[in-house]
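Hello forum,

I keep getting stuck at the same step: I have a sequence, I want structure tokens, and every attempt I make locally crashes halfway through. Rather than fight my setup again tonight, could one of you with a working pipeline run this one for me? It's a single chain of 119 residues.
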Amino acid sequence: QVHLVESGGGLVQAGDSLRLSCVASGRPLGMYIMAWFRQRPGKEREYVARITRAGTSTYLMDSVKGRFTISRDNAQNTLYLHMNSLKPEDTAIYSCAADGDFNGEYEYWGQGTQVTVSS
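Reply #2:
Ran it on my machine without issues. Output:
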């Protein structure tokens, strides 16, 4: 199985940028469809972004389109979430997840990294 560890979160001001990383170990990142999820305070978990194994296709939720980009470097076993023009409503715990069965169910999860955006 794959082990996922996120990093890159922090406290920033509205309008700032952050890059989250998710490093995979145990199995090659390239074996998995990867995604980022977030859980905002008091809200249900949201499906933020997804990227296919080769990185040729991506999905972004509507509220982050034009501001966030998902990418991956399979040689470095690392998934990224580039976040620009951050808003206070982006404040959440961001987690990466891996889908090895390609069925839309993510069976491996990282522990999450906190992103806090102040106004």
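The CA atoms of residues 6 and 13 lie 21 Å apart. If your local run keeps crashing, start a new thread with the error log.
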